[in-house]
From TrEMBL:
<comment type="subunit">
    <text>Homodimer.</text>
</comment>
<feature type="active site">
    <location>
        <position position="300"/>
    </location>
</feature>
<comment type="similarity">
    <text>Belongs to the citrate synthase family.</text>
</comment>
<dbReference type="InterPro" id="IPR036969">
    <property type="entry name" value="Citrate_synthase_sf"/>
</dbReference>
<feature type="active site">
    <location>
        <position position="346"/>
    </location>
</feature>
<dbReference type="InterPro" id="IPR016142">
    <property type="entry name" value="Citrate_synth-like_lrg_a-sub"/>
</dbReference>
<dbReference type="InterPro" id="IPR016143">
    <property type="entry name" value="Citrate_synth-like_sm_a-sub"/>
</dbReference>
<comment type="pathway">
    <text>Carbohydrate metabolism; tricarboxylic acid cycle; isocitrate from oxaloacetate: step 1/2.</text>
</comment>
<dbReference type="GO" id="GO:0005759">
    <property type="term" value="C:mitochondrial matrix"/>
</dbReference>
<keyword id="KW-0808">Transferase</keyword>
<dbReference type="Pfam" id="PF00285">
    <property type="entry name" value="Citrate_synt"/>
</dbReference>
<feature type="active site">
    <location>
        <position position="401"/>
    </location>
</feature>
<protein>
    <recommendedName>
        <fullName>Citrate synthase</fullName>
    </recommendedName>
</protein>
<dbReference type="GO" id="GO:0006099">
    <property type="term" value="P:tricarboxylic acid cycle"/>
</dbReference>
<dbReference type="GO" id="GO:0036440">
    <property type="term" value="F:citrate synthase activity"/>
</dbReference>
<dbReference type="GO" id="GO:0005975">
    <property type="term" value="P:carbohydrate metabolic process"/>
</dbReference>
<dbReference type="InterPro" id="IPR002020">
    <property type="entry name" value="Citrate_synthase"/>
</dbReference>
Length: 463
């Protein structure tokens, strides 16, 4: 019997998830592995040739300011899955967010893309068929169960341990399942690293909604059971079921959310952390856990939670329909007190985040009169000019985090501390696809040069 330290109630162990006959799916899932393998070997040849001819070409310079300024603008990483244009926003393998919403397969009756399709796209550069996506959903459903020690650990965490800490810890503990770690310890040839990284990526992604839902139920639903995985439902639908919600519109929003937050090129905190830790050949589980510790920072993934705290505070003080002048005053006070306005600004983007726009479009269609959405819309008018006035904020426009919490609030998923976990589930798609490619291209251990200020001063001619 396991008793929750959080609530004192007796917790049910996870029901043993239905074990499927996956023999036929194994072959189909190999289709994704086969396609990925073919793409990797083709591209690896191209990159080798490119480096042979252009390896010494200079593509940028590094200034003292860049070194002290968080490496902003230094071109230092090769990431194949996505590219972030400062003026246009993210493109996944060349496809913009509107294009992905249009082209990627959808669930029957759904209007938003299935994140399974985006994962296929990120890995292979190709838009998958409906059948390929369906098989991927089945594959993930078949591997969604957790090792017993992970369930026991989650069930015993105290309520004041933030959901993101629980999430990262559970992923670390899942390392018992790593095919990569096992293969490495058995001396597998390095040309096969990417294959084991792929296998781990698939089973890790399959398990993340189960981990997330277990955390949610333990913290906010008295440790009630997450129920069983339905092998005929897609990844997002099973996730929403496990969380305990029954709204089709919420499920469709989660599909959109998990798709658009999946990847944002390689230099952001969590993506870079996964790449860095993976470069030392830590397993995909450990590499991803490192990324999730990075995502838990308030300037990164936790900003999503911070936005809700900010808006809620504003609503409590000013009511549901504050005037522009009141919002403006509230924001100015925030800046004066030395805090950031969460959900605004970006290290690379220089325009409204298309991920914000996609969510805004969803709201305009499904919840146009929701007071919190109206408040977010008002902030869109008021905040950019205020940030511009400071003269130092490089991007005064909203980022993805300015919006997502509002939709989740509307559909009753109100526990804002949990929001970064949902982003973490999504982010796995991008960073795991990238990690497969890192190993496929045999990228070496990362080790950049650091400097002391006195060496930098000497180099700059300061005597
Ligand atoms: N509110 C107040 N000040 C802001 C600001 C904001 N939203 N955005 C930037 N600034 C400030 C910075 O703090 C910095 O001030 P100092 O010079 O006094 O240190 C100055 O403007 C210049 O910063 P910048 O070059 O425009 O932005 P950075 O690349 O340094 O930082 C980011 C980017 C996202 C951390 C920053 O814009 C921020 O803190 N935004 C609010 C938090 C947020 O929404 N984070 C989520 C981003 C999405 C993600 O990557 O996950």
């Amino acid at each position: 019997m396991i008793v929750s330290r959080t609530t004192g109630t007796v917790l049910k162990a996870l029901p043993s998830l239905q074990r499927l006959d996956v023999s036929f799916i194994r072959n189909l899932s190999c289709e994704l592995k086969d396609v990925t393998g073919a793409k990797i070997s083709e591209h690896a040849k191209k990159v080798k040739e490119f480096r042979g001819f252009y390896g010494s070409k200079v593509v940028g310079e590094v200034t003292v300011d860049m070194i002290y300024g968080g490496m902003r603008g230094i071109k230092a990483l090769a990431t194949e899955t996505s590219y972030l244009d400062p003026e246009e926003g993210i493109r996944f393998r060349g496809y913009s967010i509107p294009e992905c919403r249009d082209l990627l397969p959808k669930a029957p009756g759904g209007q938003e893309p299935l994140p399974e399709g985006l994962f296929w796209l990120l890995l292979t550069g190709e838009v998958p068929t409906e059948n390929q996506v369906k098989n991927l959903s089945k594959e993930w459903a078949a591997h969604a169960d957790l090792p017993a020690h992970v369930v026991t650990m989650l069930n015993n965490f105290p309520a004041h341990l933030h959901p993101m800490s629980q999430f990262a810890a559970a992923i670390t503990a899942c390392n018992t399942e790593s095919a990569f770690a096992k293969a490495y310890s058995e001396g597998v040839h390095k040309s096969k690293y990417w294959e084991y990284t792929f296998d781990d990526a698939m089973s890790l992604i399959a398990k993340l909604p189960t981990i997330a839902a277990t955390i949610y139920r333990n913290l906010y639903r008295d440790g009630s059971s997450i129920g069983a995985i339905d092998p005929n439902k897609d990844w997002s639908a099973n996730f929403v079921d496990m969380l305990g919600f029954k709204d089709e519109k919420l499920t469709d929003f989660i599909r959109l959310f998990l798709t658009i937050l999946s990847d944002h090129e390689g230099g952001n905190v969590c993506a870079h952390a996964v790449h860095l830790v993976g470069s030392g050949l830590s397993s995909p589980y450990l590499s991803f856990a490192a990324g999730m510790c990075g995502l838990a920072g308030p300037l990164h993934g936790l900003a999503n939670q911070e936005v809700l705290v900010f808006i809620t505070k504003m609503q409590q003080q000013l009511g549901d329909n504050p005037t522009e002048a009141q919002i403006s005053d509230f924001c100015r006070k925030t800046l004066k007190s030395g805090q950031v306005i969460p959900g605004y600004g970006h290290a690379v983007l220089r325009k409204t985040d298309p991920r914000y726009t996609a969510q805004r479009e969803f709201c305009l269609k499904h919840l146009p009169d929701y007071p919190m959405f109206k408040l977010v819309s008002e902030m869109y008018k008021v905040v950019p000019p205020i940030l511009m006035e400071t003269g130092k904020v490089k991007n005064p426009w909203p980022n993805v985090d300015a919006h997502s919490g509002v939709v989740l609030q509307y559909y009753g998923l109100r526990e804002m501390n949990f929001y970064p976990v949902i982003i973490g589930v999504s982010r796995a798609l991008g960073v795991m696809a990238s990690l497969v490619w890192d190993r496929g291209l045999s990228l070496p251990i990362e080790y950049c040069k650091s400097m002391t200020s006195s060496v930098l001063m000497k180099m700059s001619g300061v005597s």
